[in-house]
Design a protein that fits this description.
Layout: H1 8-22, E1 24-28, H2 48-57, E2 63-67, E3 73-77, H3 79-88, E4 95-99, H4 105-117, H5 124-136, H6 141-148, H7 152-162, H8 165-173, H9 178-186, H10 191-202, H11 207-233, H12 241-246, E5 251-252, E6 256-257, E7 275-284, H13 299-304, E8 311-320, H14 323-326, E9 329-330, H15 338-383
Parallel strand pairs: 2-4
Antiparallel strand pairs: 1-4, 2-3, 5-8, 6-9, 7-8
Helix pairs in contact: 2-3, 5-7, 6-7, 7-9, 8-9, 10-11, 11-15
């Protein structure tokens, strides 16, 4: 008779086989699972996208349970998935579960801590790669958001980054967040815009505000170009924005005089050699339409009165870009006394100071308008939240 010698390795293999054989895989109603003791107390079960994913796609990763002495299933791992599934439901009403032998308390606590401490979420670069793969399969942005339970702005940002190599490389290297990369991707074709964004990031200014200013400026340039084309269609010799930028000087004919020192009649401006039209925008401040007679009338009408808001309008201005060729000269340039020239110079300096102040006000108004757009978008997102922010 031959005796079989049991080695330590054989013993370990047998024990492992017993454990594997003892495990089961089945589908359970999450409401029937007893939530056992867990080191994790904050389930973050109010996460909108997570709840949406469970409701629409179910629990994709099996939870771990054991069977107690009464034959009931007690949860070991997967508390957040189980609780959420019980609250919002799943497409089948069931969740996948792996049934294991009941562990010792020390093993249970250790495993629960390892599961939560060392679990790493997807990097943003990996999210972009996944979104790109779905898009290449023909899945729409809306369907990507639904299938992955990623909010639509994040999906849109990821799709934008997939089309911009430089921004994507910087996201991959960790130089930019996904939100930042999406902004840079939008302007990657414009080196000057990218430089402005770089400066904003370097000095820790809001990239969202700087991006909105760039969008507003682009829209303004587009509107300006459309007005130039409209006036050209009417037969006017209109300067483009590029023409104005390249010109050595752009002088309003209304501020020039003839060799005799006389202002040129307006009807003759188009006949000046080299005369062109420069389209400018000027602020219009509507006159207060307050009716003085209402002082004796109904006071409630006065309370409802709101003054009209100032607005900008396009104004075609006749100019010359070559003063010598025009046959005109600046006011006070010749034929006047030194005192007259000095007075004229002072008046011109005052006028230029006023124009500079108006330009400053316009620039501030534009910056405020761009910031207002960002604030409204943020407020709309904030109001749409279903839960209050922490703190």
């Amino acid at each position: 008779m031959t005796d079989t010698i049991q080695t330590p390795a054989d013993t370990a293999a047998d024990e492992a086989t017993e454990v594997v054989q003892a495990e089961e895989f089945l589908y359970l109603d999450p409401a029937d699972i007893i939530i056992g003791t867990n080191v994790r107390t904050d389930l973050r079960a109010d996460h909108k996208e997570f709840r949406k994913s469970i409701k629409e796609r179910g629990v994709l990763e099996a939870v771990t349970v054991y069977r107690n002495e009464d034959g009931q299933y007690v949860l070991l791992r997967g508390q957040r998935r189980t609780v959420t599934a019980a609250e919002v439901g799943t497409p089948t009403g069931l969740i996948p579960a792996r049934v294991v032998p009941q562990p010792a308390d020390a093993d249970r606590i250790g495993d629960q801590m390892v599961e939560n401490i060392h679990r790493a979420g997807m990097r943003e670069a990996e999210i972009v790669a996944g979104v790109e793969q779905l898009a290449l399969l023909g899945v729409s942005a809306a369907q990507i958001a639904k299938r992955t339970s990623i909010d639509r702005p994040t999906v849109n940002a990821a799709l934008a980054v997939t089309k911009a190599d430089q921004s994507r490389n910087r996201l991959d290297s960790g130089d930019l967040t996904l939100e930042e990369a999406a902004i840079f991707a939008e302007f990657e074709h414009d080196p000057e815009a990218v430089e402005r964004l770089e400066n904003a990031k370097r000095w820790r200014r809001s990239l969202a505000h700087e991006a909105q200013r760039l969008r507003d400026e682009a829209a303004e340039r587009e509107a300006d170009a459309a007005e130039v084309e409209r006036l050209r269609a009417e037969g006017l010799p209109v300067l483009s924005a590029e023409d104005v930028e390249e010109a050595d000087e752009v002088l309003r004919i209304e501020r020039l005089v003839t060799e005799d020192g006389e202002p040129l009649p307006e009807e003759e401006w188009p006949n000046v050699p080299g005369a062109r039209v420069h389209v400018v925008k000027e602020w219009v401040y509507p006159e207060d339409e307050y009716d003085e007679e209402s002082e004796d009338g109904d006071e409630s009408e006065d309370e409802d009165y709101e003054p009209a808001e100032p607005y900008q309008q396009y104004v075609p201005v006749w100019v010359v870009t070559d003063l010598a060729a025009s046959g005109l000269r600046r006011r006070g340039f010749s034929g006047s006394t030194t005192t007259d020239s000095s007075d004229e110079g002072e008046r011109e300096e005052e006028a230029e100071a006023r124009r500079e102040e108006r330009r400053r006000v316009i620039a501030n108004n534009k910056a405020w308008a761009s910031a207002e757009t960002v604030r409204r978008e943020w407020l709309a997102t904030f109001v749409a939240r279903k839960t209050a922010p922490k703190g």
